Amino acid sequence: MEYFASKEGDELADELAAKFISRRDRINSNGRESRLAKSYRYYYGQQNIGSYSFGDSDIKSAGSQGELKVYSTNHYRNLIRNILAITTSQKPSFDCRAVNTDIETISRARLGNHIVDYYMRDKKIFKKSKSTAEMSLVMASSFMVMNWDTTKGADLGTEPVIDEETGEPLVDDETGEEVEKVLKEGDIKCTIHSPLDVRFDEGCENWEEVDYCDVRSFENRWDLVSRHANLKEDILGESSVDIDKTKYMGLRSYDEDSDFIAVFTFYHKPTTALPSGRLLKRLSNGTILYDGPYPYGDKFNIFRIAPGEVFGSIEGYTDMFDVLPLQDVINTLDSAMFTNQKAFGVQAVAIAQGSGLSTEDTGNLSFVKVPAPLSENMPRPIQLTNTPPELFNNSKRVEGNCEKLSGINSVVRGDPDHNLQSGVALQRVQAMAIQYNSNFQFAWAALLEDVGTFILHLLKNFASTERVIALSGKHNRGAAASFKKEDIRDLDTVQVDLGNPLSRTLAGRLEIADRLLEKGLIKTPHQYTTVMETGNLDPMTEGHDAEVNLVRRENEQLMDGKGMDALVGDAHLMHIQEHKSLLSDPVIRSNDKLVSIVLAHIQHHVELYKSQDPVWNMVSGEPPFQAPMPPPPPQGPPIPQGQGGPMPMQEAPLQDPNLIQAN
Questions:
Q1: What are phi and psi of 491, to 5 degrees?
Q2: What single DSSP character describes residue 640?
Q3: How far apart are CA 383 and CA 344, in angstroms?
Q4: For residue 50, is pLDDT > 70?
Q5: How far is residue 466's CA from residue 475's CA, in Å, rounded to a whole number?
């Protein structure tokens, strides 16, 4: 026997196709596919009332004679959108980590932060990451696949198209000229996939153990023809209809004239069983578009996010599965109440037979004749619109259970309970919802870290030309920077900071801003509005961070034996303390030249600190220099009485106690 992934291309393509269908059969037989399909349909409003299903926004008639009026109140989608909002609404902070800690590498790390932020923002990767997270809440898991696409980016020129079979330039049959293609500099491509589009080894118990995935995507057949001209007939002959009808979960009809066809890509990262890995791209009819080694080294280009995990497997789980039956109950109860009010919303009047009253006498209202006599033949209103209060109470109870199971309470949904009056109580209830969904927030942060790290990996290995990025932030408005792949070669990983969970809500950001203002940490109105609007504390720390980076750079230059001058306005005390730490190194202390350079620089800080205007101390936040108190005058010999010395105290005469009492 041999490892299946090392088989010849045609044989491997056939086996992969069979394995893909086999997985679909398994998740269909165990009921998972029907649950995924129901969740997908309900999220987009195609819900059920009993055995009746509807997918538009109209009120429908149901029942054997159309006696029921049914509609849906889509709490299911609203709850998912609220979970997504409290998790992904705040812009994350990306922090590139380098293999070294020298000041040049730290500077490159800051460049890396801008690069990741640029690709997340301008290349819409953050938007796609958010869509991936949204899909996982609906379908229990979802996947993002990242590739280096050689058809993207700026034009670099043209080159002949080579026939893969003959190795010679391809010639156009009509013109007789060589077919040329435009060379691009290449760029990053991201695609999003549901769990029905990705097949992996189901024997793995966690995602880190996965060595390969077979991914289904949909691509324009004419784009494929332009890249694989020798396979034109096979590509154009491929059907555009999804074989297993799961692309749109029944929400959309299939266009047989569509130019998009299913493409399957097998990604296998390098392992001991397959040292070069493998990437095989094929059509469902077996046509192989590409077969070669895995191009991304030891980094897997497929990233997964799941709100929860099924123990002992890679299948995900979402709490929203538990809300699905409750959504059915809400639809049934609300429709029952509405049916009664729809049918009997117009007031009916009871009239005694033989009373002589006509419809004109009742103002053309609906009337019902009842056996006589009514008291004094007077018409009586019939209250047919009364709905049992149990229906209303049960509807509210089920809605509350939906909120409990999803972890989203009434405060987050904008309809707080009337018992919650104080701002503190509202904040605590809102914080509880954030805490409940912390597992999903952790998965969201992990996805962003993986994606950010792979962005750097792709650029380090495939960005052969210099690239220009736009810098983000108010302080960098209109600014741009250029980089080459050599500039980020030392950057290894990306870490993500989602910030304080409380800062993801307006009430939380307002509370943080007020607390910082009370403690005097906010100095300007701009800082206050920045914290209140974004929760970002960078405007208050960027000055200190810049000073710290300056000290680090100066320390490196001092260790290189380069002297420098201090400047008025520096945070001299901090500089002195940090520069002095260099002299704690025995290697530096044994070098007289380095010691003298460090001490000279420290002495310059000391002199400026003593002589600078106190205004600079206020700017740097350090206390002004205070000269030592002069010593007291020397003590001389004692001065005799009457020669300028102190006069002796006169004792008061004693008084007779009897006289005191008499007075």
A1: -80, 130
A2: P
A3: 9
A4: no
A5: 24
Contact of 165 with 115, CB cutoff 8 Å: no
Q: Look at residue 462 and tell me whether its pLDDT is greater than 90.
A: yes
Round to whole Å and give the CA distance between 79 and 84: 9
Q: Render pLDDT for 59-103 as a digit per residue (tens, 0 to 9).
A: 777 776 666 778 888 999 999 998 998 888 878 888 888 766 665
Closest among 147, 142, 34 to 84, alpha carbons compared: 142
In sequence order, the 6+-apart residues with CB closer than 8 A to the CB of 100 are 490
Q: Which residue has the higher pLDDT, 369 or 554?
A: 554
The DSSP symbol for 74 reads -
Answer for the pair 238, 258: CB distance below 8 angstroms, yes or no.
Answer: no
Q: Is the pLDDT assigned to residue 607 strictly greater than 80?
A: yes
Looking at residue 271, what is its pLDDT? 95
Compute how many other C-beta atoms are within 10 angstroms of the C-beta atom of residue 1: 3
Tokens of 454: 């792979």
**Long-range contacts of range 26-31, CB-CB < 8 Å, 24 or more positions apart?**
26/202, 27/196
Looking at residue 7, what is its pLDDT? 94
- Mean pLDDT, the chain, rounded, equals 80
Which spans in 407-471 are helix H?
A: 423-436, 438-462
Distances (CA, A) of 568 to 571, 578, 579, 613: 9, 17, 17, 9
Which SS3 state, helix, strand or coil, does residue 171 take?
A: strand
Q: Where are the domains of the chain?
A: 505-536, 542-620
For 325, other C-beta atoms within 10 Å of its C-beta total 11
Give the side-chain half-sphere CA count within 13 A for 153. 23
